[in-house]
Design brief:
Structural class: mainly alpha
Largest sheet: 2 strands, parallel
Order of helices and strands: HHHEHEHHHH
Shape: globular
Radius of gyration: 16 Å
Strand order of the largest sheet: 1-2
Helix content: 55-70%
Low-confidence stretches: none
Oligomer: single chain
Length: 196
């Protein structure tokens, strides 16, 4: 298992290609949006929540920059630029992350953990060199799955691909929920190497 910071270049290329295949399928986004909105509820066990929180703390600690919390909108391009440009010897990077609109996620994350998740998610975008399009969100989801234990894949598939599908397909961010069907849609697509 890798951390966001240690995903090899070849794996990053494979993840981007896989996400591109999925994003090109015109039925995939509405299927994922439906799975998020109408799928059976995912209620993580205490052990899975603890595992998710440990994964999140480890991923946050592996970000190769100081995270700066900003009380303003931070475009993804600004956050990504902090991690992708040439680095001078001894240079300390600062990655801006917006605090706007971040609240606790009942039963999953405190407000602080939600901010950490936002930073980890932006760092994955930077590592994979993808934008915040549907393709980019799919790639980021797949990237997160390569860094996480399988017990929390359902949380990540729902939190990233499921919410993104609804937000992009319907034009507004959905009410928070976890759906176990998001992972089923993602993992059982025949073209997906994560097929289980």
């Amino acid at each position: 298992m890798f951390s966001t910071n240690t995903i090899p270049g070849g794996l990053a290329v494979m993840i981007r290609k896989q996400a591109e295949l999925l994003a090109r399928d015109a039925t995939f986004m509405p299927t994922m949006a439906g799975a998020f909105q109408l799928g059976s509820e995912l209620v993580p066990s205490e052990a899975d929540l603890a595992l998710f929180h440990t994964w999140l703390a480890d991923e946050f600690a592996s970000i190769p920059a100081n995270v700066i919390w900003c009380n303003r909108e931070v475009p993804l391009t600004e956050a990504v630029a902090a991690l992708t440009g040439p680095r001078l010897p001894g240079e300390v990077r600062h990655m801006p992350v917006s605090t706007l609109g971040t609240a606790p996620v009942a039963g999953l994350m405190t407000a602080e953990q939600n901010l950490m998740f936002r930073a980890v998610h932006d760092a994955m975008h930077a590592k994979l060199r993808v934008d915040d399009s549907w393709h980019g969100e799919l790639a980021t989801t797949l990237g997160h799955l390569h860094t996480a234990p399988p017990q929390i894949w359902g949380i990540l598939a729902s939190e990233v691909a499921g919410q993104a599908a609804v937000a992009i397909f319907e034009g507004e961010f959905p009410e928070q929920r976890l759906s176990r069907d998001c992972l089923r849609v993602l993992a059982f697509d025949e073209s997906n190497p994560l097929c289980i």
